[in-house]
Structures are given as C-alpha cells and as structure tokens.
Amino acid sequence: MNGLPHLDGDTIDRLVPPGRAVEALEEALRGGLDPEQAPPRPVVDVPAGQFLLMPASSGPYAGVKVATVAPGNPALGLPRIQALYLLLDGATLTPLATMDGTALTTLRTPAVSALAVRRLAPPDARSLVVFGSGPQAWGHVTALRGVRPVEEVTVVARDPERAAGLARRCAAAGLTARSHPASDPAWRRAVEEADLIACCTTARTPLFPGGLVRDRAVVVAVGSHEPDARELDDDLVARSVVVVEARTAALAEAGDLVVPLRAGRITADHLAGNLADLVAGRVAPGPGPAVFKSVGMAWQDLAVASAAYDAWTARGEISGEHERGL
User: Fold this and answer.
1) Collapsing DSSP states into helix, strand and coil, what is residue 60?
2) CA atoms in the 13 A half-sphere facing the CB of 213
3) pLDDT at 285
4) By three-state DSSP, how is residue 167 classified?
5) Is residue 82 domain-shared with residue 220, that is, in the same domain?
6) Domain that holds residue 183
C-alpha cells in the first residue's frame, strides 16, 4: 500500500446503510461501552466558527474526528459542518484509514436518534414532524423510517423553498409529505398530532410550545451542542421522560437541559438515563412524552467508522480507487 486508504462518502453510505449504523451503535453499548467514560471534546472558537476534536478508543480500534462548524458556510453553498476522520489500530495506534467525516456525521447522528426511538416510541408510530431542511433532516426521515412504520412527514423550516424541496424528496420516497415555512402557524396542528418529532436545526431558542406535544409522542433534538442554545422549551423537558447519550456530556453541552436546570425547572435527577441504560431496559416509561437529547459523541463516530472499515476490508476493497495518500 503506497498511501493511507481513504473511504469517501459514497463508500461509507454503501457499506453502512442506516440500519447497519443503528446496529453498530447498539453492539458497542451491549459490548460494555460506557458513554459516561467518553473524554470531553475540546471546542475551540476561531473567526469562522469552531473546531471540535473528538477522540475515542474501544475494542480493536481508536479514532479521532476533526470537525468544523462554520455558520456562514450555507450562504456560500458549503456545508455548515465538515469533518475528517482518522481510524487507528486500537493496540498500536497505527493509522489505518481516513474517512469523509462529514458523511460519517450525517450517517451516525440519525442512527443514534433511531436507536433511541426504537426503544422509546410506540410500535405504531406513523406520523413524523421534522424541523429543518438540511442533511440531518433528511437523514432523520430515512433513519426513523427504518425503525418505525412512518407514513406521513411534515417538514417545517425557515426557508419555504428548502422545506418544499425536502417534502418533495420525501414524497418521491413513497411518503405522504407536506411542508410549512416556520412563519406559518399551520404546522402547529401537525405537532399536536405527531407521533415523532425530529428537531434538526441551528435554532438557539425553542422551536415550538412544549404544550403542543401529546403524551405518546417522542421528540429527538440534535441541532445544538452549546449550553446556551436549545430547540426545546422548559415545559416540554419538565413533563417528559428525558434520555441522553451520556449525562456528563448532556449536562455540559445540552442547552435544552442546561437552561431549565439553571432556571430550577428540573434537576439533574430528571434525566431518566443514558443510551446504555435505554438499550439495557433500565429506563422506565412515563405518563408524558419522551425526549431524547443528542449532542453527538466521539464513541458514536468510532462505532460507525469501525463498521465501515470492517465491511470495506471484508469485501477486499483495500486497493484501487480508494487507495491514495493524505
């Protein structure tokens, strides 16, 4: 091998479909991975946005994702979040491959949500409201459809054209779909009737009144990783069973929880459990809605990157067009 192999986005998507990504995450947790022991990720502010460094080690592999968040990028036609992943041998820390970290993030975040929804949502959950119109919004439609019989999707976004475009994409995939600009209050009815709600935005303040959400619904919020930014209001969080990836990460980065904690609306004991607890059946259902709050963690990237690398090597794809130097 003349250079470090690279798995591009198309290769990752081909080797690890959404359902396999969900399985890889659950396998990691069932194998004993403790989300609470994951190292905190450094976040460095730079003029254009932020650098995030996300290292993890588990079993035969280690890895690190270098991610950037550039709020001004969408206006330039570039992704807001971009990343590169380096996969390493766990025993020697020898580099094994690089991967398209943006594609990895786009795949693993909805897979994490789907893993939670598979445990929290009723089996007959069919209606989904998606806030947002970017890659994560579409990723959540695909992933949640894989774990529940979703038939109907309502897209709510600030940009009416982007919202309509995502609704058309959903319709082309065989779903009943409609869209509303965020400024149109007509979407409130869809929230009231939704079985599933996915919040995939860059909002810094709550997207909707929590009182609209019915008791049987499951809400996932993935859009923020800062303690002063949130998509959900205090009322929804306070009346819900709340599950997080890890308590340590959520209490440091999840504004959806940090803000009501600071206001005294909830205490840290309000968190019903983390993903490991959920997978192990240690989270008790409640009378109200369920909320899963995600900030994104490095062990998730490693689990999915490992699955991609294992599938890639098993198929004998270590040569050819994917072999190139850094």
Assistant:
1) coil
2) 31
3) 85
4) helix
5) no
6) 110-297
- Quickly count: other Cβ atoms within 10 Å of residue 6's Cβ: 18
Half-sphere exposure of residue 64, counting CA atoms within 13 Å on the CB side?
12
Q: What are phi and psi of 107, to 5 degrees?
A: -85, -45
Q: Are 279 and 115 in contact (CB under 8 A)?
A: yes
What region, left, alpha or beta, does residue 77 occupy, with left being phi > 0 and alpha being psi -120 to 50 degrees?
left
- Assigned domain for 76 exists: yes
Alpha carbon 78 to chain centroid, angstroms: 20
CATH number at residue 100: 3.30.1780.10
- Sorted by sequence, the CB contacts under 8 Å of residue 127 that are 6+ apart come out as 150, 151, 152, 153, 154, 190, 193, 194, 195, 196
pLDDT digits (tens, 9 = 90+) for 249-258: 999 999 999 9
- pLDDT mean values, one per 10 residues, the chain (326 residues): 84 96 96 92 92 93 95 90 96 97 96 97 97 95 97 96 96 97 94 98 95 96 91 96 96 95 94 96 92 96 97 72 36
Give the sign of the dihedral formed by CA 318, CA 321, CA 325, CA 326: negative
What's the gap between Cα 87 and its chain centre? 20
**DSSP notation for 200-235:** -S--SS-SS-GGGS-TT-EEEE-S--STT--SS-HH
Quote the CA–CA distance of 151 and 170 in Å, as a whole number.
10
Distance, in Å, from the CA atom of 240 to the CA atom of 252, rounded to the nearest integer, reads: 20
Give me the number of domains the chain comprises. 2
pLDDT at 2: 53
In sequence order, the 6+-apart residues with CB closer than 8 A to the CB of 239 are 210, 288, 289
